[in-house]
């Protein structure tokens, strides 16, 4: 009897360990690591938008699939791939210049980030769900060594 108890005491924890390991080996794919996704989500009334760094925006521009909108007033320069200029405080008046699909990606920027953050919040309020903002604006863009252009000419 003593050998049976000793054997049971040995195999019971082993069986429990194997059962736990088998239950933990779920073959479901895991969610993507949020650390690998560009940007930082910013919650606002009605949804959220994503702040991106200048480096992240540069990577996005390598495979550009979005309109890039300069919302700064007055004009103080632009990123070369800019598609349109819409005053940050009049976004709702220029909806016809934006994608009609509210799930389309839109990227906005300004000189320092404040006006474009306001524009991003307005876009979310208008129902857009894939809004991106250059955090720090053109100042951050230049700070990492990227060029701006002035009415079509590169600036140093």
Task: Walk me through the structure.
This protein has 156 residues and is an alpha/beta fold. The protein has a single domain, classed as Oxidized Rhodanese, domain 1 (3-Layer(aba) Sandwich). The chain has four helices and eight strands, in the order αββαβββαβαββ. It has helices at residues 2-24, 54-62, 114-125, 137-143, and strands at 40-44, 47-52, 68-70, 84-85, 106-109, 131-134, 149-150, 153-154. The strands form two sheets. It has a six-stranded mixed β-sheet with strand order 1-2-6-5-3-4. A two-stranded antiparallel ribbon has the order 7-8. Residues 4-34 have low confidence and may be disordered.
The total beta strand count reads: 8
Give the assembly state of these chains: single chain
Q: What percent of residues are in strands?
A: 15-25%
**Helix-strand string:** HEEHEEEHEHEE
Q: What is the straight-line distance between the termini? A: 89 Å
What CATH architecture do you see?
3-Layer(aba) Sandwich
Number of helices: 4
- Averaged pLDDT: 83
Uncertain segments are 4-34
- From the spread of the alpha carbons, the general shape counts as globular
């Amino acid at each position: 009897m003593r050998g049976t108890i000793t054997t049971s005491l040995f195999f019971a924890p082993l069986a429990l360990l194997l059962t736990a390991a088998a239950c933990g080996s779920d073959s479901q794919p895991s969610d993507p690591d949020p650390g690998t996704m560009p940007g930082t989500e910013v919650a606002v009334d009605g949804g959220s938008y994503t702040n991106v760094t200048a480096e992240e925006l540069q990577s996005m521009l390598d495979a550009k699939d979005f309109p890039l909108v300069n919302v700064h007033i007055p004009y103080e320069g632009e990123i070369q791939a800019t598609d349109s200029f819409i005053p940050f405080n009049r976004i709702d008046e220029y909806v016809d210049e934006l994608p009609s699909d509210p799930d389309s990606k839109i990227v906005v920027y300004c000189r320092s980030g404040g006006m474009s953050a306001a524009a991003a919040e307005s876009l979310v309020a208008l129902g857009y769900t894939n809004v991106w903002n250059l955090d720090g604006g053109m100042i951050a863009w230049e700070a990492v060594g990227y060029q701006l252009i002035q009415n079509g000419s590169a600036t140093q």
